[in-house]
Amino acid sequence: MRVEDFKKYLFDIDGTILNTKEEISAKTKDSIRILIDKGIEVLLATGRSLQETLQVAEELEFSLLLRLIVLTWYIKGKKSVKITLNNFY
To answer: What's phi and psi for 40, nearest 5 deg?
Structure first.
């Protein structure tokens, strides 16, 4: 498989985008830029606050941030999922 075989890439911020020093390495930035330049969508996943997520997105030079809140809960053995579009930035 080639990088171009995928239309979207989803990365977790903690431990994937950010290293153990809470920094984004030059190699990571370059790799993400290559994907974006090829027209591939790059998405971030995190449980971080909006402010922390915006800092990462800005450092990666993302032009759009959608903040989705996904709540999953179990009621009497049945799984329910609620997805809320919270904000555009």
So the answer is: -90, 135
CA–CA dist 11, 16 (Å, integer): 7
24's tokens: 């984004």
Give residue 61's domain range.
3-88
Where residue 56 sits, what CATH number does that domain have? Answer: 3.40.50.1000
| pLDDT digit string (tens) for the chain, length 89 residues | 887 888 888 898 988 899 999 999 999 999 999 998 998 988 888 888 878 888 898 899 887 666 666 655 666 667 665 655 555 54
